[in-house]
Write a structure and sequence with these properties.
The complex is a heterodimer of chains A (290) and B (174).
Chain A: E1 8-11, H1 15-25, E2 29-32, H2 38-43, E3 51-54, E4 64-67, E5 70-74, H3 79-83, H4 86-91, H5 93-100, H6 105-108, H7 113-119, H8 125-132, E6 136-140, E7 145-149, E8 154-156, E9 159-160, E10 167-174, E11 179-187, E12 194-205, E13 208-217, H9 227-233, H10 240-253, H11 264-285
Parallel strand pairs in A: 1-3, 2-3
Antiparallel strand pairs in A: 4-5, 5-10, 6-7, 6-10, 8-9, 11-12, 12-13
Helix pairs in contact in A: 5-8, 9-10, 10-11
Chain B: E1 2-7, E2 10-15, H1 22-29, E3 48-51, E4 54-57, E5 70-72, H2 85-92, H3 102-115, H4 121-127, H5 139-154, H6 161-167, E6 171-172
Parallel strand pairs in B: 1-5, 2-6
Antiparallel strand pairs in B: 1-2, 3-4, 3-5
The chains are: A alpha+beta (290), B alpha/beta (174).
Bound molecules: flavin-adenine dinucleotide and FE2/S2 (inorganic) cluster (2 copies).
One FE2/S2 (inorganic) cluster (FES) is lined by residues 96-102, 133-136 of chain B.
Chain lengths: 290, 174
């Protein structure tokens, strides 16, 4: 039997209410969404919040909405909702690819998009996917609502720019023409965390890559992104050789952890392979075969 | 804190510590021991119950989060002495050996069949992929869920949860 340490429970009814509660408890309060990262950590006493602020009833945080040239994904959107979203599937198949291999269907009924990103586990799949898409995070504090590019959102393992009195409200993903995206993951068994995973998004004008995003999960990439590989590809014509070279560059610049999921050289090899594979699938989806 | 939870159509009011997990609340406070606890770490799925119509791992949900909500456990499956088709099919196909994983498997199977009355083997395997069985090797569980689909599709009573909803009473337990 694993039981968390004692805490008080508050149920927020709106974003403003949740932020008021965070201010009221002055650093002692912690937001709980799906609880599928936080509750296990509390059971192990790796986390001991004095007050839990439950945001599950905050309707403002739910829902996936197309708003002009952005897709807005609420922080409280459950993994399964994103997986089943026709809009997301059409615009950003990378998100659906990723959701299909995050945990299992029962965990996906509960875990949320916002919780995944705020958890900032180095193996979190959505961190790599949203980084590839160059999404923006909308964060509400007591005074202001600010927008932070997702690439500036992660401070380090388990650490983000969301302050103790702030709430992640939604992700905004820019919708631009000529895009294709994909997510590929290797894990030891169904539903497990990645040995390595890569998300790629390309924006093409004809055969030329005008913008590119490559996100790496569990592979020890700074801020989940392969910036050097992106710089190499930007402005180039899509080709199998260019994608293989991007994979090589990404592998060279990441620093995979050695753990029970495998040695570093294997993971580096995996990074190169998955970068090339995800880019190939992303450009196929953008209408360009390599 | 005081919470009111409707479990299998019956309303319960209890005073609990906020840290009590839903699985323990069901078992220890309400005596509904059909819900099992295996890993206690959201990995095995023995503890699956429905929360507002969706299967969740109740070892990783606070009872406080279920305040004002509907919970459905394995105890709700059989009605008027009649087994749910998933239960009958698990018997017919030897879907249970020690039975430890069975309550969670049954609740997920019922959910799957409510959404997809004729699931492929692949869909069944996907649906139960968050649940561990140490005995059966899964073959008989998959077969049982297929059979439940066939039983439901031939029976007059479709065995779905819609029937249960109609039966729900708002009765306050003492
Ligand atoms: C068995 C299992 C397998 C898993 N496998 C995978 C996997 O393969 N890949 C993967 O990527 N993930 C995996 N996960 C992780 C899962 O994606 C996350 O646990 C979960 O989605 C986190 O979201 P949550 O809503 O449960 O967050 P919570 O546990 O509620 O919160 C996590 C953290 O985020 C904070 N937080 C939550 N929402 C907000 C908000 N709106 N604003 C500010 N702070 C917030 C909380 O305070 C907490 O610190 C797995 C989890 C389990 C239990
Ligand atoms: S006891 Fe809940 S998942 Fe194992
Ligand atoms: S029947 Fe024993 S664990 Fe499944």
């Amino acid at each position: 039997m694993q039981v968390p340490a004692q805490f008080e429970y508050e149920r927020a009814t709106s974003v403003a209410h949740a932020v008021d509660l965070l201010v009221k408890y002055n650093g002692a309060g912690r937001v709980i969404a799906g609880g599928h990262s936080l509750i296990p950590m509390m059971k192990l006493r790796l986390a001991r919040p004095e007050v839990l602020i439950d945001i599950n009833e905050v309707g403002e945080l739910a829902g996936i909405v197309r708003d002009g040239d952005e897709l807005r994904i609420g922080a409280l959107v459950r993994h399964n909702e994103l997986l089943d979203s026709a809009e997301a599937a059409q615009l950003f198949p990378i998100l659906v690819d990723a959701e299909r291999v995050i945990a299992d269907p029962i965990v996906r009924n509960r875990g949320t998009v916002g919780g995944s990103l705020c958890q900032a586990d180095p193996s979190e799949d959505l961190s790599a996917a949203f980084s590839a898409l160059r999404a923006d995070a909308v964060i509400q504090g007591p005074q202001i609502r600010r927008t932070v590019p997702i690439r500036d959102f992660f401070v380090g393992p388990y650490e983000t720019v969301v302050g103790p009195d702030e709430l992640l409200v939604e992700l905004r993903v820019p919708v631009r023409p000529g895009s294709g995206s994909a997510f590929v993951k290797v894990s030891r068994r169904a539903g497990d965390w990645a040995v390595g995973a890569v998300g790629a998004a390309v924006w093409l004008a004809g055969d030329v890559i005008t913008e590119i995003g490559i996100g790496l999960s569990a592979l020890g990439a700074q801020n989940f992104v392969a910036v050097e590989a992106e710089d190499f590809l930007r402005g180039r014509v899509v080709s199998a050789e260019a994608f293989a070279e991007a994979g090589r560059i990404a592998a060279e610049h990441c620093d995979p952890p050695v753990d029970q999921r495998g040695p570093a050289d294997y993971k580096r090899h995996l990074a190169a392979t998955l970068v090339a594979r995800s880019l190939t699938l992303a450009s196929h989806r953008a209408g360009r075969e390599v | 804190m005081d919470i009111t939870v409707t479990v299998n159509g019956r309303q319960y009011r209890r005073t609990i510590e906020p840290r009590v997990l839903l699985a323990y609340f069901l078992r220890d406070e309400l005596g509904l021991t059909g819900t099992h606890l295996g890993c206690d770490t959201s990995n095995c799925g023995a503890c699956v119950v429905w929360l507002d119509g969706l299967p969740v791992k109740s070892c990783t949900v606070l009872a406080a989060m279920a305040d004002g909500k509907q919970v459905r456990t394995v105890e709700s499956l059989a009605r008027n002495g009649q087994l749910d088709p998933v239960q009958q099919a698990f018997i017919d196909c030897h879907g249970a050996q020690c039975g430890f994983c069975t309550p969670g498997m049954l609740m997920t199977a019922r959910w799957l069949l409510d959404r997809d009355p004729d699931p492929s083997e692949e869909r069944i395997r996907e649906a139960i992929s968050g649940q561990l069985c140490r005995c059966t090797g899964y073959e008989n569980i998959v077969r049982a869920i297929r059979r439940a689909a066939e039983l439901s599709n031939t029976a007059d009573d479709d065995g779905s949860s819609a029937a249960l909803a109609g039966e729900q009473r708002d009765e306050v337990a003492s």
